[in-house]
Amino acid sequence: MMTEVSIVKAETVPDELSWESSRRWLVTKELVRKAVDMVGGIDSIVSQADIVVIKPNLIVPVTPNMHITTNPHVTASLVELVKEAGVKRVIVAENPALIHKGREAFRVTLTEKFCRKAGAEVAYLDECEHVAVDIPDGRVLQRTMIPKVILESDALVNVPKMKTHWLCHVTLGIKNLLGVLPFQEKIKYHREDIHQKLVDILSIVKPALTVVDGLVAMEGQGPRCGRLIKMNTLIAGRDTVAVDAVTSAAMGFNPSEIAEVRIANARGLGVGDLDKIVIKGERLENVRQPFERASRELAAVFPNVETYLGGACKACQGFTRAALDALYQSGDLQRCEKISLVMGQGVNIPSKPEGVVFVIGDCTHEHADRGIYIEGCPAYQVYWKIPPAIGAKVPAALEGYHTD
């Protein structure tokens, strides 16, 4: 039997209306219902479930008009559809990226407000009890911690945002599952090995339904600092791998470029081959748009940033590039003096690097006394340590919060 994935596209989504607008919510709900109906309908997916968990992508506590996080109306619409199917308990659960707090992410993104109104409970996974779980076929993770609320649910509905990503090319259904892990488990194996790690998570946390929010997508320097694109599109299916394959193709990627899709397909955890997927609704060609890809490049990108790169890994390069992208968006990077970045194993640096010197990552520890040392493998603390060192506030895309 072929795997089915639906694509639905609205002529327009009423962004001009207030987020509190019931009409805006209703338009979104009908689009969500249409997408889910094409892959069997919500009744066939959750009819036997007493507890359903819905997991959006709330990477950082920012207001929904920034479109970094899953549209709260999409999440709340799924709550209503699941409740209409007769499910007793619907729980919306998430743990934001890095050190961000679930309570703040739920509040600022309006996800908690709308989902409670729709009849759901809310679980801040960073505050929830976790249980140690073995991963029998794990390539990178053989054992990890999973929230008890996820393990005790009868079905998981996965609601990622359609965005590019500096480490994984895209952040879609498989990548969104990283949010079920506690912080220390998230940051571990967050380099080239993240792709196998994500598939290891998929092998034990298997969504019953994945709905990609592509109403307003993000290209370029995602997942926080990219350019917004109005796609007015939702992509849905029961097979997360197939949904990611179709969505990445809609974004202009060959699905085999997406390591998580390729690995999951090879391990039999889903279908990553477009020739084996039945696409219902809109034709893929009608929504396909070549997204600008995210870059981790640091050398000669910003005029006042000098780089000394040895064997730097993708993660340290990516976190640092994201920090600089956010500072460039805010205008603070252009206003600061010269910056020098020292990064990677075996790096060669001059006797007197120019300007404010940042020595980044555990592998540069021998040079720690040459500047502001930011430890870690990867050194994710660049988000919060670079801005104040150059006299800037931490930008909203990194810290959270934003208003029009």
Structure description:
The protein is 32% helix and 23% strand. The protein contains 16 helices and 16 strands. Strands 1, 2, 3, 4, 7, 8, 9, 10, 11 and 12 form a ten-stranded mixed sheet that branches. Helix 1 packs across helix 3, helix 3 packs parallel to helix 5 and helix 9 crosses helix 11. The longest helix has 17 residues.
Question: Which helices and strands, and how do they pair?
Answer:
Layout: E1 3-9, H1 22-37, H2 42-46, E2 51-56, H3 72-84, E3 89-94, H4 102-108, H5 111-117, E4 121-124, E5 130-134, E6 143-147, H6 148-151, E7 155-159, E8 161-165, E9 169-171, H7 173-176, H8 183-187, H9 194-204, E10 209-219, E11 227-237, H10 240-250, H11 259-266, E12 277-281, H12 284-287, E13 305-309, H13 314-330, H14 332-335, E14 339-343, E15 356-360, E16 372-374, H15 382-389, H16 396-399
Helix pairs in contact: 1-3, 3-5, 9-11, 10-11, 13-15
Primary descriptors:
404 residues, 4-stranded parallel β-sheet, globular, alpha/beta, 10-stranded mixed β-sheet, Rossmann fold
Low-confidence stretches: none
Full CATH superfamily name of the largest domain? LarA, N-terminal domain
Number of domains: 2
Strand content: 15-25%
Note the main sheet. 10 strands, mixed
In CATH, the topology of the largest domain is named Rossmann fold
Share of helical residues: 25-40%
Shape category: globular
Question: CATH first level of the largest domain: which class?
Answer: Alpha Beta
Number of strand segments: 16
Q: Roughly what is the average pLDDT, rounded to an integer?
A: 95
Number of helices: 16
Quote the distance from N terminus to C terminus.
48 Å
CATH architecture of the largest domain: 3-Layer(aba) Sandwich
Structural class: alpha/beta
